[in-house]
Amino acid sequence: MPTNSDLIQHLEQFATEKRRELFYKLIGYRTRYVTVVLEDIYQSQNASAVLRTCDCLGIQDVHIIENQNKYQINPDVALGANKWLSIKKYNQKNHNNTLTAIKALKDNGYRIVATTPHTNNTELPDFNLQPGKTAMLFGTEKKGLSPTALSLSDEFVKIPLYGFTESYNISVSAAIILYQLTEKLKTTSPKIEWQLSTAEQAEILLEWFSASIRNSKGIINKYLTEINGRPQ
User: Fold this and answer.
1) CATH number, domain containing residue 54
2) Residue 207: which H helix or E strand, with range?
3) Contact of 168 with 176, CB cutoff 8 Å
4) CA 116 – CA 203 distance, rounded (Å)
5) Cα separation of 90 and 39, whole Å?
6) Rounded Cα distance, 84 and 107, in Å
7) pLDDT at 227
8) Rounded to whole angstroms, what are the CA distances from 79 to 30, 50, 53, 84, 114?
9) How far is CA 202 from each of CA 2, 3, 53, 105, rounded to the nearest angstrom?
10) pLDDT classification of 57: cutoffs 50, 70, 90
């Protein structure tokens, strides 16, 4: 059975040299050490702006919780960022999707950090990334994070404020926090192993090549047929 690397090697011949070089350059900046969790974000411009920020900063995974509000992407704001991210949605009916999402993240070794100005918290400049993989929770535009999210969080972080308004817009807050954390990843001593594993890089590169090449599924099936004598 061909590996992801085999499939990438076959697909990349259908991509331009410029696209191939870009993919192999950017995959080295991708991380899952920090991930983003969005709970009930309903304004499409905010939802899309956060995706765009994650892509620009190399944060690969975004977890979207839909309890009351459906997550809408505004293509004019996202500018295709969702195409390059790994997005996981939690939206089962009659379920506490917040509980499901946080349990899944904790089972995967993430500590859960709520972004809120209202709880005993650490200010962003003092936040320590060393304890391990971190999932940053962002809540709704008006109410913030739900009681469930707050009760299940391991830590709390806030951006220092020096004005009369008590909080930033959600997309601005995400941009400030994620920029500072991704910069810390690269400079913290002792060094944090924040980059993707070889296997993770191959998995994502295959998704990127597949998303950017016309009829990639047909190309892969033809390749597999030639190797195995049958379509997959």
Assistant:
1) 3.40.1280.10
2) helix 198-212
3) yes
4) 34
5) 10
6) 25
7) 84
8) 19, 12, 11, 11, 27
9) 12, 9, 23, 22
10) very high
Query: Per the domain annotation, does 98 fall within a domain?
Result: yes
Put residue 151 in one of left, alpha, beta given phi > 0 → left and psi -120 to 50 → alpha: alpha
Number of domains in the chain: 1
* Model confidence pLDDT, tens digit, residues 196-226: 999 999 999 999 999 999 999 999 999 888 8
3-state DSSP assignment of residue 85? coil
62 DSSP β-pair partners: 36, 87
Instruction: Judge whether 42 lies within some domain.
Output: yes
CA distance linking residue 116 with residue 136, whole number of Å: 11
Encoding tokens for residue 167? 């909080």
State pLDDT tens for residues 129-178. Answer: 988 999 999 998 778 899 999 999 999 999 988 998 878 889 999 999 99
Could you read off the pLDDT of 78-134 as tens digits, one per residue?
Answer: 778 999 999 999 999 888 999 999 999 999 999 999 998 776 789 999 999 988 999
For 111, the domain range is: 30-204
The confidence score (pLDDT) of residue 31 equals 98
Q: Strand 155-158's sheet: what is its strand order?
A: 86-90, 61-65, 34-39, 134-138, 111-115, 155-158, 122-123
* Length of the chain in terms of residues written: 232
Is residue 184 assigned to a domain?
yes
Name the maximum alpha-carbon separation found in the chain. 68
